[in-house]
Every structure is written in structure tokens, then in C-alpha cells.
């Protein structure tokens, strides 16, 4: 079932190729409607395989195409729970439940994220309280720090009986903690303690990884420096001339895909090479066709640049609609619009999916009045 963009055609079944009210081709609308679901499915597959960043890209694309995709928000919440970023997770679960408040799986995931968030806050508060207490005692009695330490440690154990004394945070323990996160898989880091500052260096793939590393380490220690962590973007490979893909072949493949797409049937589109860019040109009836063309080309070209600026949008002529009144016949309607009742077959041919018998037309039926030239 699909709703037409004219807002009159509601819950139209697959039997309708066109909207009975405005005549819009519904095949393209169904094609566009499928895109968000395909990206959600791809994001779920990436998440199962542990390819977190790719999953995030697919799910964010799904939301950009359909802001009401509750499943995409739910999966993004799951991802941020894995990363230990519970505020972000709760935010995405909220958005999912705003769209589908009866989804029990999302409700359970939200409850878990909130519980984990509260526990994380409580652990940080305990850690900070202990650190402040130790610092005050060292300042007040610097000369007797060792003796005071012996006296205070039992007191701390008595104040926090459920916890064992915390061992010193070592560089190795930080590295081991970071290694437990799938989204940091393959990242090589080193940690060195200089005074009371943990100096981190290494290379990450993006800003999200660097932020995650900072959040995780700051939950363990008071002072951390990430100036030695650099971000590198994936470089486009340098092809040998014999290995470099032939852009003309890619252009032909795109042209073939456009020609084979039923939603683009009858639309004159060309794909040509201009330098290192694939230029798609032609005329389309609306912007949604431009979106579809860009999507088709993007799946084929990969990293090559696509230019669709040459596409022009030329809307189809506005269709004339008429609501059948009591005692109307196709003859009288043709006479009213064409001043010639004998042209009634034009109206009948344009509305065969609505009119079974040209001698019987139902009052209240909305029909299209084609131009005489048609």
C-alpha cells in the first residue's frame, strides 16, 4: 500500500500503476519507498559483522531518505550502547519510540541503556570522590603521606565495602580496555605516563574513533592528552593505467541500468564522460527522478565523481481533473470541455482503469480530461 504525493490517493494497492486522482506514476514512488528499508537491512548486516562505522553510514542514509524509519533509530541506539555512549543511545531510542511506541524490543533496549548510564555515572562519582579525598589528605599532611595512607586505606575500604581497593591504572590496562571495543578494531595506539598525564599517540580512521578513545580513557584517569593521535582518511588508490577502470565502460553500464529501470521508462537520459567525471544529463519530470538517477549511478561508479547538475526538471503539464456530477455522460462532458461531444472516446481512453462501461459513469468519480492533441 502507498500514498500518492497529491494527498488524495491513500492506501493504493500494487494493482494501481497510476494514482486514480492525479495520474502520478506510482512505480517510481514505490521504488523510492524501498530505498530506506534496503539501507536499514544493509546497516543491520554490517552491525552483525562488527563493521560499526559502515553500519552507521547505512543507517544515517536511511534516515535521510525517510526520517520516520523507526528501525534505523533503534539500530543506531544499539550501536552506541556497544560503544558505551549511553546518552546518545537513549536519544536514538527516544526517537524510535516516538515513531513506534509499542515496540517492546526498543522499550527493553531503552531500559538497559538507562540502567547502564546510571551505573556509569555512579561509578564515575565514586572514583572522583575517592580521588578528591586522597588529594586533600596528601595536601594537608604532606610530611606524613605514607603514614596517613596506611591509616586512610582501611577507612576507604570501610566507606566502600562493596568495592576492592583500586589498583593503579597502568598504560597496559588502558590499552586492554580500548581493545574490547569493536569500533576500535585494528587501531594501533601507544600510551605513556608523563607525570600524572597519560599521553596517547597513534593513528585512527575518523573523528568518531578519536572521541570514543578520549571518553573511555577519561572515565579511567583524570588527565589525558590525545595530541599524538592523528586522523587519516582513506586514500583513493593509485591505479596503474592498465588497472584503472574505464570510465566509458562505467558510463555504458549506467546507461544500461537507467534503460532497464521501469520507473525511468520513456525518459531520455544520457551518461557521458567529461575528464574524470561522469555527467548525467537529460530532462526529468521532478526532483525525485534526479534522486533515483543519482542512486543508480552511485552504486556503479564507487568513488568516481558524479555530476547531475545538467539534469533539468521539466514538470509534466498539469492534468485537468473533473468530478462526475449526476446525469453526466462522457458525451456531455466532452461537449463541455471540447465543445464537441463526439470526442468522448478521448476521455474514455484516458480513464479506462476507472471506467468499465463508457455508458455508465459513477457520480463522484474523479476523471482526467486529456487535451485534444492527445
Chain-wise SSE layout:
Layout (H helix, E strand, L loop, with lengths): L25 H23 L3 H14 L4 H13 L3 H14 L4 H37 L4 H15 L11 H9 L8 E7 L2 E8 L2 H12 L5 E8 L15 H14 L8 E6 L2 E8 L2 H15 L3 E3 L3 E3 L6 E4 L6 H9 L5 H7 L15 E4 L5
Parallel strand pairs: 2-3, 5-6, 5-7
Antiparallel strand pairs: 1-2, 4-5, 8-9
Helix pairs in contact: 1-2, 1-3, 2-3, 3-4, 3-5, 4-5, 5-6, 9-10, 11-12
Q: Could you explain the architecture of this structure?
A:
With 374 residues, the protein is of the alpha/beta class. The chain folds into 4 domains: 26-117, Tetratricopeptide repeat domain (Serine Threonine Protein Phosphatase 5, Tetratricopeptide repeat); 168-234, 2-Layer Sandwich (Histidine-containing Protein, Chain: A), CATH 3.30.1340; 247-313, Alpha-Beta Plaits; 320-369, LysM domain (Membrane-bound Lytic Murein Transglycosylase D, Chain A), CATH 3.10.350. 49% of the residues lie in helices and 14% in strands. It is built from 12 helices and 9 strands. The protein has helices at 26-48, 52-65, 70-82, 86-99, 104-140, 145-159, 171-179, 207-218, 247-260, 287-301, 330-338, 344-350, and strands at 188-194, 197-204, 224-231, 269-274, 277-284, 305-307, 311-313, 320-323, 366-369. The strands form 3 sheets. Strands 4, 5, 6 and 7 form a 4-stranded mixed β-sheet that branches. A 3-stranded mixed β-sheet has the order 1-2-3, with helices on one face. Strands 8-9 form a two-stranded antiparallel ribbon. Residues 163-167 and 234-241 have low confidence and may be disordered.
Amino acid at each position: 500500500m502507498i500514498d500518492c504525493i497529491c494527498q488524495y490517493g491513500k492506501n493504493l494497492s500494487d494493482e494501481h500503476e497510476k494514482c486514480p486522482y492525479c495520474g502520478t506514476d506510482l512505480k517510481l514512488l514505490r521504488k523510492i519507498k524501498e530505498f530506506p528499508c534496503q539501507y536499514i537491512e544493509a546497516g543491520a548486516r554490517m552491525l552483525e559483522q562488527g563493521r560499526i562505522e559502515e553500519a552507521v553510514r547505512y543507517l544515517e542514509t536511511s534516515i535521510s531518505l525517510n526520517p520516520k524509519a523507526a528501525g534505523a533509530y533503534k539500530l543506531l541506539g544499539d550501536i552506541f550502547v556497544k560503544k558505551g555512549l549511553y546518552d546518545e543511545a537513549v536519544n536514538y531510542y527516544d526517537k524510535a519510540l516516538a515513531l513506534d511506541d509499542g515496540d517492546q524490543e526498543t522499550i527493553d533496549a531503552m531500559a538497559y541503556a538507562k540502567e547502564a548510564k546510571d551505573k556509569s555515572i555512579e561509578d564515575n562519582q565514586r572514583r572522583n570522590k575517592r580521588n578528591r579525598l586522597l588529594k586533600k589528605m596528601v595536601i594537608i599532611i604532606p610530611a606524613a603521606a605514607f603514614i596517613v595512607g596506611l591509616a586512610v586505606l582501611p577507612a576507604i575500604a570501610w566507606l566502600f565495602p562493596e568495592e576492592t581497593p583500586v589498583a593503579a591504572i597502568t598504560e597496559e590496562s588502558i590499552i586492554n580496555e580500548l581493545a574490547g571495543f569493536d569500533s576500535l578494531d585494528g587501531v594501533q595506539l601507544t600510551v605513556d605516563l608523563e607525570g600524572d598525564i597519560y599521553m596517547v599517540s597513534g593513528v585512527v580512521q575518523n573523528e568518531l574513533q578519536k572521541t570514543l578513545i578520549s571518553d573511555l580513557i577519561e572515565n579511567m584517569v583524570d588527565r589525558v592528552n590525545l595530541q599524538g593521535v592523528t586522523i587519516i582518511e582513506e586514500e583513493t588508490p593509485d591505479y596503474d593505467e592498465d588497472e584503472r577502470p574505464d570510465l566509458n565502460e562505467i558510463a555504458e553500464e549506467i546507461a544500461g541500468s537507467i534503460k532497464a529501470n521501469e520507473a525511468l521508462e520513456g525518459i531520455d537520459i544520457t551518461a557521458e564522460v567529461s575528464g574524470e567525471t561522469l555527467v548525467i544529463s537529460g530532462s526529468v519530470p521532478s526532483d525525485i527522478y534526479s534522486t533515483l538517477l543519482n542512486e543508480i549511478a552511485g552504486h556503479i561508479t564507487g568513488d568516481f565523481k558524479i555530476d547531475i547538475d545538467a539534469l533539468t526538471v521539466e514538470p509534466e503539464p498539469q492534468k485537468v481533473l473533473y468530478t462526475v456530477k449526476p446525469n453526466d455522460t462522457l458525451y456531455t462532458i466532452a461537449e463541455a470541455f471540447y465543445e464537441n461531444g463526439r470526442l468522448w472516446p478521448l476521455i474514455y481512453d484516458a480513464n479506462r482503469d476507472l471506467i468499465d462501461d463508457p455508458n455508465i459513469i459513477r457520480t463522484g468519480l474523479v476523471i482526467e480530461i486529456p487535451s485534444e492533441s492527445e
